[in-house]
Amino acid sequence: MASTKAIKNRIHSVGDTQKITNAMYLISSTKMRKARREAEDTKPYFDLLRREIRRMFAVGTDLSSRYYDADVDENVAGGRNAILVITGDKGLAGAYNQNVLKETQALIDRSGEYRLYVVGDYGWRYFKSRGANVCETFTHSMHEPSLAMARDITMELLDDFDRGDFDRIYVCYTEYGGSMSAGEPMHDRLIPFDRDDFVPQGEETDKDASTVFEYEPDVETVLERIIQSYMVGYVYSALVNSYSSEQNARMMAMDSANDNASDLLDALEKQYNHLRQNAITQEITEISSGARSLNSKGK
To answer: What CATH number is attached to the domain comprising 114?
Structure first.
């Protein structure tokens, strides 16, 4: 059985660990709220971009661009795919990283040729250790997502796409599911866009077509620039969702660790008190026995 000194040292150790997990919980909570607030601040701008794209399709239904309207069958395996994978920089977030890595692996298995563009040190180390085809020059840390970061990532992907390095770009990320959820890993096709997502229907078509704009130098050029900005918003949304899911998963993990530490401290305190009481009882017994022995000898 452990001594009282060893148990006391264990109690101090668990208490110090609980302070760390509690601090990590508070830090993750602050980071998540900040990211969600910044995402809400930028959402109206990208909603406006999407509405303007729909307006252009309503005015000119014969528009064409290399970024959409491609004949892509998602049910056919193969092709040359670029996969943007968004993971965290570190662990201690439950199954957050493992879930998105499994989602990515499933997409890799369906691909013919592929190249991974990994955001986050955790995913980078994971795929490099397994010999996956990872883009060496793409080194983005999953610190705090920002529009500048999303713009850099998007431009790097578009540069390689324009060179003809691949035919499709996918994004594997974790969709934020609320404060009580660890998030849902998923993948979306970034390029080529589905034309049907932008073609307005019914009354919306009439409403958008009723307002006539003149585009300089032409509608295709303006549309291409807007599509690029919209892609930045798409990537930014994926980054914020993943980052929020990571922080929320870490909060849940740290909250569970705090509860476990409290339970362990209670058990250690009871064990310590039990041993201490036994020691006191033994000392009292020894003193009483000694006193009786002295009294017997005196008589």
So the answer is: 3.40.1380.10
